[in-house]
Amino acid sequence: MKRKLVRLKNSPLPQFLQKHKKYAPLLFFIGGFIFDTLTLGRIDRLYDLTVLCLHMSALTLTLYLFNLADDGKWKNTFLERFEAYFPLAIQFFFGGLSSAFVIYFSRSVSISKTASFFTILVVLLLANELLKKRISNKYLQFSIYYFISFTFFTFMIPVFLRQMGHLIFICSGLVSLGITLTLITVIYRRSPSTRSEIHLVKLITLIVSIYLAINLFYHFKLIPPVPLALQTGIVAHDIQVKNNEYIVTYEKKKPFVFWRDHRSKFVRSNDKPVYIFSSIFAPTALKKSIIHRWQWFDVTKDDWVTYDDISFNITGGRNDGFRGYTYKNNVKPGLWRVEVITQEELVLGIIEFEIIMDANEKPKRLISKAF
User: Fold this and answer.
1) By CB count within 10 A, which of 6, 141, 278, 325 is most buried?
2) Consecutive sets of 10 residues in the chain, 371 residues long: mean pLDDT of each?
């Protein structure tokens, strides 16, 4: 056994990690992020599901192994030689999972309403690098684990059940809560060092508080309705459906505007309808009702006034999203926005524009594009 340990210590990887010990956690964190960025695509793809499930399972197992290592549980076993790598593995899986959620949430986030929860994920992604100094803090370990676990199941359960809604979200939270509390209880019972470091009631209270906080975010519609994602949202002059293609005619944005496809000033002519085109990604076989909520800004009231809620059903599975559109004839000049929302009024995205009615102005940079 001693010979094997000496051989292991003299191998290239341990020598490299020992030499660059200060930067090893950051390298493992970046490695997890780059791996996900290059490989993850669709949340309902078998590869993505397999990677995320393996990451979550490996994180759970590694947390268990790491917390029992201080009690000498792995002494004189083959796991003893890997004890030094447990913190790095935890960092890799934390980084891998949090970066995956940032990738998926970034496709669904509406900057005006759901960016707060997205910001928490980004902060968690960046703060993961700090765990190299605080990885032994069990309160921090299990708090982050529960947050990641909750987020994991809010993606996974709708994909597997092919349904989503309030009940599914609550079930996702309860499943992750049960798994986290079970892990904590098992470690607490088997690890004397853990019992000496934490107050069990305090830790459980912290976990339950996170559960309640996330549910409050959901109640106030601050969480995008993952795994749905708004891929395209355009205000258009005309939409024609030909040979299963949507030919969308709209005013092209300026080159430096990267956050939307269309020009924000919509020049209306000849009392033609104003169209809103959207394509929404949904996992295969998931069916959902989507609403285009048309709102006009009333300057006298200094508030948005809802004019219409126009709904249509989508079915998941198409790579470029389920396409649909709504239109209005009776519109006023001024600022408009169309919220793309679910039946539960969770925001997928907001399409903002200004309608201009001026006989002297003509639409600029009109293009027609097939979707």
Assistant:
1) 278
2) 48 55 57 66 84 94 93 90 87 82 67 61 60 69 91 92 90 95 95 92 94 89 84 93 94 80 87 93 89 96 95 88 93 95 89 90 90 93
Percent helix, strand, coil in the chain (nearest 5)?
50, 25, 25
Tokens representing residue 199 in the block: 């107050």
The contacts of residue 330 (CB under 8 Å, 6+ apart) are 307
Could you count the other beta carbons within 10 Å of the beta carbon of residue 135? 18
Backbone angles phi, psi at 329, to 5 degrees: -95, -40
How many residues can be counted in the chain? 371
Q: Give the other-Cβ count within 10 Å of 198's Cβ.
A: 21
Q: 159-185: string of b/e by CB count within 10 Å (b at 16+)?
A: beeeebeeeebebbbebbbebbbebbe
Question: E strands, 191-302, where?
Answer: 229-236, 238-242, 245-251, 265-267, 274-281, 287-298
Full-model pTM: 0.78
